[in-house]
Amino acid sequence: MAKNPPRTKPPRGNAVIGQSGGPTAVINQSLAGAVEALRDTLVRKDVVKRIFGMRHGVNGLVKDDLIDLTKVKGKALDRVARSPAAALGSSRDKPDRDYCNAILNACSARDIRYFFYIGGNDSSDTCRIVSELADEAGYDMRCFHIPKTVDNDLVGSDHTPGFPSAARFVATAFAADGLDNASLPGVKINVVMGRHAGFLTAASALARECFEPAKKKSGFEPGPHLIYLPEVPFDTDRFIAEVQEVYSRLGRCQVAVSEGVQDKDGTPIATRLAQGLDRDAHGNVQLSGVSVLGDALADLVKRNVKTSSGKQARVRADTFGYLQRCWPDPSPVDAAEARAAAEFAVACAARGFQSGSVAITRRKGKKYRAEYGRIDLRDVAAKTRHMPESFIKGTSNVTRAFSEYCRPLVGPLPRLARLGS
Q1: Distance, CA of 196 to CA of 292 (rounded, Å)
Q2: What is the pTM of this model?
């Protein structure tokens, strides 16, 4: 956490809130939390006159495409908060210094003195650049990053709003898919979001807990049986050998694989197996929402994994894609924390802090409880957090420590059962 940062009297003016990057199931909880916290503090004290919402992030701000949120009724705001995806519209723009100068000019034209941006590490970098430009220009504006990302890869936090709900989706989807795989045995490959960090793919391991303690009585071995993360170099020969071992033992195999798995040289497997993939505004190869990785791995299995009689194994692959980030069954913990993180950002502004990003940490003790703190934008901006080694088991599994870390975040999971193995 930032140590003894300077604080000054909050300036009078307007506030603006935006949403950026991939939407989540709880990103609107952060929007509602910021609006209500502003009303209860700075608006009530007549410090903030109007609260604007950017349409499609900073792209809308520079085009003066804003919505007045100052007097949106509480019931309407609550309905929005409970709805998935970005209510204001999102953006994949990655502003450089010139773009951020345009953002600052747009803020000056509207007398905006409070800039709140809900997003991931690139969004925090936008906050950082805008804050530094405002300081250079002598324009008193407070810039705060409100965290959001299903990838759970923000530096300085125990976890990030959006991740627990996506993890809940992944766990329940794998549990149901595992029963399907047992009903019509074969090899099933599911590709999960996660370009550089494997947290969301690792959450598939919680599917196994949907069958406790019933699995001990039935002999049923729930999946996923193999979990592949970006942090562990992916080797296709080893992949085939591991799938064959599980298939030979169980007569089936359920696989979780991160879209960002890469070889020992850091090259994404998807780009090795397919050419001409599109790139996003950040220059990243498009991995989410495309089936190339799953199809390619399924083809590898078809050609190399055999039944006991030497026949080709039955193989299917699904790419979870965008479904996992906005499924309308959020984790209750996630919904509450997404709102609280935004409220904390507003509280920092009201207390006179110049800028910052909100970090969620975990209190020590047996019972899970979250804490919120302000960290410097430079400490989180454009940085990526990875799965720690203590969460990774071998080449294709996660540890008990990861499950214990993730379990309290996702909310109650369904109890499922099967007759026999």
Answers
A1: 18
A2: 0.93
pLDDT tens digits for range 112-145: 999 999 999 999 999 999 999 999 999 999 999 9
Contacts of 223 (CB under 8 A, 6+ apart): 174, 177, 178, 181, 188, 207, 208, 253, 254, 255, 256
d(CA 44, CA 332): 29
| Cβ-Cβ contacts under 8 Å for 365 (sequence gap 6 or more) | none
Among candidate residues 93, 122, 125, 151, the one labeled active-site is 151
- Residue 281: pLDDT band (50, 70, 90) is low
Angle between helix 400-410 and 163-183 (nearest 10): 110
What domains can be seen in the chain, in order of their start residue?
13-161+330-379 (3.40.50.450), 163-327+388-410 (3.40.50.460)
Alpha-carbon span 94 to 125, nearest angstrom: 9
Going by their DSSP bridges, the two strands 370-375 and 355-362 should be labelled as antiparallel
CB of 348 closer than 8 Å to CB of 144: yes
- Of the chain, the end-to-end C-alpha distance in Å amounts to 50
Question: What CA–CA distance (Å, rounded) separates 312 from 126?
Answer: 51
Distance CA 96, CA 132 (A): 13
Strand partners, 355: 143
Do 179 and 415 meet the contact criterion of CB atoms below 8 Å apart? no
The string of DSSP letters for 349-370 reads HHTTB-EEEEEEEE-SSSS--E
151 annotated active-site: yes
Which tokens hold the place of 244? 């064959």
- In this structure, are residues 134 and 141 in contact, taking their beta carbons and an 8 Å threshold? yes
- Return the percent helix, strand and coil in the chain, to nearest 5: 40, 20, 40
**Whole-angstrom distance, CA of residue 309 vs CA of residue 311:** 6
Does the pLDDT at position 106 exceed 90?
A: yes
Under a CB-based contact definition with an 8 Å cutoff, are residues 270 and 289 in contact?
Answer: no
